[in-house]
Amino acid sequence: xxxxxxxxxxxxxxxxxxxxxxxxxxxxxxxxxxxxxxxxxxxxxxxxxxxxxxxxxxxxxxxxxxxxxxxxxxxxxxxxxxxxxxxxxxxxxxx
Length: 95
Known about the structure:
Strand content: 15-25%
Shape: globular
Number of strands: 4
Strand order of the largest sheet: 1-2-4-3
Number of helices: 3
Order of helices and strands: HEEHEEH
CATH topology: Gyrase A, domain 2
Distance between the termini: 29 Å
Radius of gyration: 13 Å
């Protein structure tokens, strides 16, 4: 899969509210006001989606907060796999 250009990344970010680029990775912080268990349930849904896509994000959990970081390691940067899984994460956060 081809790496995204700077213009393609900018376009994708316009469609992915709350996402940004940090250290070459697509990153978003989610907060679950209901507490730890909803955050863990979200992580489980993301893990299932990631496994199905064979594309695994870095996930950090801090009580009711989850940080998702995406990059396509075997391509050395951001690809369509990352933007697709980012959009899916946003949908899974609403579930």
